[in-house]
Amino acid sequence: MALAIRDVREHDLDAVLALNNTAGRSILVLDAAQLRYFYEHADYFRVAEIDGELAGFLIALRDGRDYGSPNYRWFSEHYPSFVYIDRIVVANAYRRHGLGRIFYCDVNSFAEVRVPLLTCEVFLEPIDDVVVLFHGTYGFQEVGQQRMGEHGPQVSLLAKDLPSFAYVRDTYLEHGGLPDLPWLASRVPYLTHNDSKPRRLAGERRS
Description:
Acyl_CoA_acyltransferase; disordered C terminus; Aminopeptidase; GNAT family N-acetyltransferase; single chain; alpha+beta; transferase
């Protein structure tokens, strides 16, 4: 089995949308315009390919985005700097094989050189004990709860401290930025020119 975790490409979007909208009630349905927003603005948008098949994806955004999610807004009101996991979806055929942990390790590595906090939420209505346990064992702690809209589900707002960030900030971000290495590069999500391939930049100085 050949597994690859890579940045999303435009030709993946139809498959990503279909996967999202058949994931079940714990994942909010998207339309094409909402998915295009993520393609153009998400700081982290990676897919998993297994033997050439789309097996899952994870979307995350940094603070400072113009994003209307009530949960993202909650974190924006309470924390100055974070990466917010908006959603993770794994195809039914590839569940229970550790792909969720692989994604979380990857987004953790992305976040810990940029921000002090990794955040997300889990639904409490209906509650999924497997999901709650997964996040607890991965180091997340509840920092709040809220209801998503007047009639929406109650959610638990979770945050994970990233202790490596202080070292990265003091050693690199405040002294010229990250090294120019491919695994440290940042996604440039919105192509405003006639580029045919996503461009990635390293050495960012945001903290």
